[in-house]
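_Full entry_
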Amino acid sequence: MSTFTERVKTLNLGRRVIYFVLGFFTYPGIALVNRLRVNGAEHLKQLPKRNVLFVSNHQTYFADVITFLHIFFAAKWGKYKGLGIPYYLLNPMTNIYFVAAAETMKDTWLTRLFAKAGAITVKRTWRAEGKEVQRGLDPADTRKIARALDTSWVITFPQGTTKPFAPGRKGTAYIIKQNQPIVVPIVINGFWRAFNKKGLKFKKKGSFLSVTIKEPLEIDYNAPVETILDQVMDSIEQSKKYMLKGKHHLMSIVDK
């Protein structure tokens, strides 16, 4: 057996152990303390094992990704309507990575452990050390994401922030244009109500958590970056169109 193959097997075993530990401790908060509803998980059935990019809106630093991992692991075992008993943690997928801001992965032992579970750490292009900055996408970060897509699924949050209806970052569109992955949108809700901003502590127990996995997008990879980004933002319901819908909905509630 080659040294490379041995390293891959050792890495996969280590990730399985980490996923089991994280899954064991986070399952109650997702499926028991709160109420999770999953829609569209059947769209995961026909996806290839590599070059799949999941794009989602973002409501907490960690609870969103952790929930996606639970859903993906359960789907591997043929469970598409919910999590059920988490026996799927005994043999989780290992071909999953998620994009995360480097500065958020250094806070605690738990976040550092989570980083080892498959984080692709990148530098924020608009914020550093609590200050607003303006800098381009680091080519090294782009290469890391491209290498992950070459063998695996990757989860990313185009807005890069938990603020609703924040503008999307062009880096996501560049990655789509360059690597031509299958792009699967995910829309979540309720996480901001259930957890604190980091997603590691409860804010309101008994909250309703919603995860909707949509069909893969039909993307023209030759289209301008701006066009691809607009399509992505619309698919995760964070575009101006959906922001206006939210405002109208809020006004109708106030009028009543």
